[in-house]
C-alpha cells in the first residue's frame, strides 16, 4: 500500500547535482622572452673584437665598450657602424641594427688652430655623441674652415678660446660659433680621433642598410627593438636639411621628433606651440618653424 507521500514524491523534480566549483582563471600568457641582444665591437684604430650587451642609451653603450677594452668612457669620441673609418654617413645615432658591428673612435692627438671669422658662417656642421662631446660632421666646400687643412671631419671641439665646451650639446656649440664677432681671431682646441696607421682623414661614403630590425636607444626609459626609419623618408631628410641650414647642426633624432610632432598637429600654429613645449630649449625662429611645417607637408603629399 502506497503511502500518501508517494504521489508527491513522484511528481517532484529529481534533485540536481551540485554545481561544480568555478574553475580558476587561466593565468595570463607569459610575455614573450626578450631576445638577448649581443653586439660585436672594436676600437676603430685596431683591437680584438669585444662583445657587449645590456645598454639602453649612448652613455651606457660607451661604458660597456670602455669596460670591454679597459679604457675610460670619456676616451670615446663617437662610434660608426660597419666601418672603422671616419665616415659620417655611418655614424651611430639613436638606432643600431641588430647585426651591426660597432666601431668606437677614441681620442687621438690634440691640436689648436687660430681662425679669423671673415664671413657670418664658418662652414661647419656640428653634431654630438650624446655623451658630452660635440664634433665636426661636415665642412662646407669653399668655406673658411675648408681652407684650413688642420681641421677635419670627425674632430671633436674641446674648447673655444680656452673655454671648455665639453658637456655642451651640438646646438649650443653652433650658437657659440655663430655669435663670435667677425674679423676677430679666435682659437679652437680640437681632438682628432685616433686612426690606424696610414689611414686618411675620411673613409669611403655609404648608407647603413634600412628595413631591418634595430635597437633604438633612448635618453630615458628602456631601449626598444623596432623597424629602422628609412633613409629615404622625405620628411625626415627635409627636417634634417633645415636644421643644418638654420642652425649648423645635423641630428636625425631631433628631426624625427619634429616630424612626429608635425604629424599630430592640424596647423602650423599648433605645430609651433607643440614644438615649443617639447623642444623649447632650441629657441627655433618662426621662419624655421614655418619652413619645417611646409617641408613635412610637401613630403607627405609626395608619399600620397
Structural features, described:
By secondary structure, the protein is α+β, with helices and mostly antiparallel strands. It contains 7 helices and 12 strands. Helix 4 (234-247) packs across helix 5 (252-263), helix 4 packs antiparallel against helix 7 (286-302) and helix 6 (268-279) packs across helix 7 (286-302). The longest helix has 17 residues, at 286-302.
What is the helical fraction, as a range of percent? 25-40%
Give the beta-strand count.
12
Radius of gyration from the CA trace? 29 Å
Provide a count of the helices. 7
Biggest sheet, open or closed, and with what strands and sense? 7 strands, mixed
The 3D shape can be described as: flat
Q: Can you write the helix and strand succession as a string?
A: HEEHEEEEEEEHEEEHHHH
Which class of secondary structure composition applies to the elements?
alpha+beta
Q: Provide the residue-averaged pLDDT.
A: 78
Give the low-confidence spans: 1-12, 201-211
Q: How far is the N terminus from the C terminus? A: 94 Å
Characteristics of this structure?
disordered N terminus, three-stranded antiparallel sheet, 12 strands, 28% helix, alpha+beta, 7 helices, seven-stranded mixed sheet, flat
Topology at a glance:
Blueprint lengths: L4 H7 L27 E5 L6 E3 L5 H12 L6 E6 L13 E3 L3 E16 L7 E5 L5 E6 L16 E5 L2 E2 L5 H10 L5 E9 L19 E4 L7 E4 L6 H14 L4 H12 L4 H12 L6 H17 L2
Parallel strand pairs: 1-5
Antiparallel strand pairs: 1-2, 3-5, 4-11, 5-10, 6-7, 8-9, 8-10, 11-12
Helix pairs in contact: 4-5, 4-7, 6-7
Summarize the structure.
The protein is an alpha+beta fold. It is built from seven helices and twelve strands. Strands 1, 2, 3, 5, 8, 9 and 10 form a seven-stranded mixed sheet that branches. A three-stranded antiparallel sheet has the order 4-11-12, with no helix packed on it. Strands 6-7 form a two-stranded antiparallel sheet.
